[in-house]
Write the structure tokens for this entry.
Amino acid sequence: MTTIPKCKYIDVITDAGEECDDEVGCVFLNSVCRKRKDIQVRVFCTNPKGKARLISMIGEVSENFELYDFTEENFVQRDLANIVYHGPLPLLIQIGPVMPQYLEMCGKYADSSSFMYLLLGELGKTLNSNKSAKGVADLFFAKARQSRCVHTRGGDGAPNFTVSDLASIASPDSPLVDHVLKIGFRNTMGRAGAFAGKFVAHLVSAFDGGANYQTCKRIADQLGIESHPETWDELACCGEDEHTRRRSIMRIVDSYIADLCKAPGIGLVINEDGTTNSIRGVSHLQIRNGYAYILDTMNQAFGFPIDFFASQTPDGKWDTRWEFSPEHDGVFNSTYSEFKDEDIHTQVLASYENWKKLMKENPDTPTTPAYDVVAIRLGIEWVCSALTNSGYRFRSGWFTELKSTDKHAELLLHDTVKSDGIERILTAPLPSA
């Protein structure tokens, strides 16, 4: 009979193949497995492209890290019957949605043995567990011995990827860095469509919960770029060219806001006092100043054209123009500006090259938020019995070290709270030391 007194078992459900944070989370987990042979990991890919994508990103797969397609044959609990086991219960981490057709399969997994469960995102409120995906998440919450969800507070509680952190976990020939930079460019420069205005207006708004605004602000601050649209009424202080440029920015901003207001019932409503019906309660001025800041700083930093570009198609799929590959050709067209389409497309391509160059030259510049990596990291700490109820701190070296070090500024603090029978890990950023 085999004795493994302190082994830690982790299963991960991921939809790798669509974005980049699943991929980085799994590469990070594989890098941990190389150092920690007492951790046994199985990753289950719900996306048919996921397994191949992860293999290409990971490179050398650790012997205690296994990749599987998400099928009834593969997704079963480990057989620990012949093992004298004194470690924590196996942990299931879900960082991707699971559709209803897998409900019975997941039920068999949940009924076969005791386990712990960690869900990325508030139960029923994010992509991983709302609408069609809610049934499986509800099942795991009900069946697990202990369940927790990770609430990253709309991105405000998730650190951002940097090239230096990515390089620390990726093999030299891995396409991981370039892949994240491509997705980061789309997420930073691309905007949510204006149709459901009251649900998306806050993303570009100048406040702590404006995910698009905050990402651009972190980038601009790192690169030393300043912008103050709130002072632009004082146009006499700038030259004629800058005056024309600012007017172009505000024309794009006001055109976007007008489109945010068009759809009855789900559109943005701006009241006479400047308040709005935004789900995050942002004002007209916050939307205006925030989007102007985004357009201004991204144009200054990378030469990105001053215009609106959607990151998704009207049916909710990622716009393949942002792939920048021969298999996904397409032209970036002018939305609100007066540029000719061929000029706009050339500017987008040039700014993408500038983006990659500057991000690699400034490897500590933050890019897109690392949502899924937060859940992976917290899961490791939980199963390794290092997750305390409050006060545990991450640092920017968390990709390479399992324990905090004093070398880097603190990035993340979490507290575990319980309400409505659900235990939540609330994450929030801390100011730099």
